[in-house]
Specification:
Helix content is about 50%, strand content about 15%. The chain has about 600 residues and is an alpha+beta fold. The chain folds into two domains: about 375 residues, no CATH class; about 160 residues, Sandwich (Jelly Rolls), CATH 2.60.120.260. A hairpin with a 4-residue loop joins strand 5 and strand 6.
Length: about 600
Amino acid sequence: MVVWRPGVWLFVVPACLPFLNFSPWTGWLIFEEFDILLFGVLAGGYGRLACSSWSGGGTRMSAALWGLMSLLGGASLLALHRGFSDAGGFVFDWFAGYTDALNSLRLFKSMGFALLFLPLLQQQLVHSRTLASQRLATGMVAGLTVVSLAVLWERAAFPGLLDFSTNYRTVGLFWEMHVGGAAIDGYLALTTPFVAWALVTTRRPVVWAAAAALALLTGYACLTTFSRGVYLAVAAPLVLLAWLLWAQRHDRHASTFFGPMWRRHSAEGWRFKAGLMLMLALTAEVAAVLGGGSFMAERLASTDRDLGSRATHWRHGLALLDGPADWLLGKGLGRLPANYAAQVPQGELSGEVQVRNEQEPGRIPNGFVTIRGPLTTRTLGGQFALTQRVGSDFAGRHRVSLDVRVQKETDIHLELCERHMLYDGSCQSAFVRIFPGKASWQTLVLPLKGPALAGGTWYAPRMDVFALSVINAGGVADFDNVRLIGPDRNPLLANDSFSRGLAHWFPAAQSYFLPWHIDNLLLEVLIEKGGIGLLLFATLMVSVLWHLIFGRARAAALSPYLAASLCAALLVGLVSSLMDVPRVAFLLYLLAFFSIQTVEEVT
């Protein structure tokens, strides 16, 4: 497609970004389906460039800017190397986790892909800056539509569309939040300004009405994250956007800016009334969500306490930087979880899973998994599990058959729950305490007790998740041949013998997410890339925003929306990590690099 229509990727990539990740079904954490899309775009784009006469002529990208891009790439490669070194060397594993060396590659992907897209961005802006801007903005709106509809389904399936008092925070399709984090927060911050673009630029009332409906859905998605950072990061940049649009329009029309809004017989006269109705509807939506339950009130009341604990968390993160080399170059990409869990008091992981193999003489290797509970903190027990998605049409009782091996007394919990990501609906569960037996492996058959799984309504079905965890502090158990048997006596789990590693299995945490995120964008960059990486990142953002807001690039039609989007991401980054979510980090870099190219084309 990209070879045939080179510019189509500017729409397709942001439109597909929210849903091209199937980690809960594949078991992949390091690699995702979105990577395949990007490789396809790059192959088609560079193939087209190789077969065409375009050589970058006509652009004005300065040597200083190319230098900045080179330094950003070099700093990322150095951080990747330091990450591999800190992990003990590069080891390839399709199902590597967050404490493995390949986690460095997972975080490198966002910057690496974005830099590879620079020539393709340059080509499209040279061809037609207006068309490229329209494609990018439309793709952002399409992606946000997908996320908003997913949020609508999630809320309808679990807490209920109008239940704002239950402790349930929306995650959408961002499976990276299986260990917490702010994936959906960052995505909503980056994309919400483009809803305003759709409202401002459309000329047809029917299309405007669709954009207004999306604005209401987006507002609902933002509000039901119950994230104070999202509220600030969405509201403040929209005020900035309004000011930038006014300044841009004012430069062009001077004193006539407000005139058309009040003309009764203007061709655009419907806009003012429709816009006023939309504002009233959004205000009512905010009042309904914030005033319709106690959950957000509890979160607002705990702001001071949460800020204090977050400050302590930040200090612990900074304490990981040991010596001038770490402060200058960082610990390495992706090394925060492993170092935090190992060095911070009471900062341990709530559990871990490892694929292992053993071979007896004359027999083929036998694969199994080792699941660990928390090392020392008893209260973290049961907050980490190895999970697998199963079908949702199995009403009735279930039982589990498994082989287990322990070296000491270990408590095991098994459950089948209606679950989207972080919160459970109805569950069937079993608990068993295992003691070392005479035989190495013990075979158990355990019935799951609990209510029948309802499955949700036809328009908002619930997904079922099987979870296996070790819940006592210091507990370790080996598992093999884990079979979930439904009422019809058919096995429901794939790869139940772990012969294909962790294929189809997905580690997930609940409630406790401290070691996986530092919850601050700047500290995140500092810890993993050092002071040099932070300086380069700050230079990139300051340069882009300066030119979009104050420089000559402010005259470009998309500049106000790009500026609002990037400012929103930085505001979310005050209290959240963004770089540990490759899809969101890639989108941030893509918008920044698109803005750079816009700046160069205008100047």
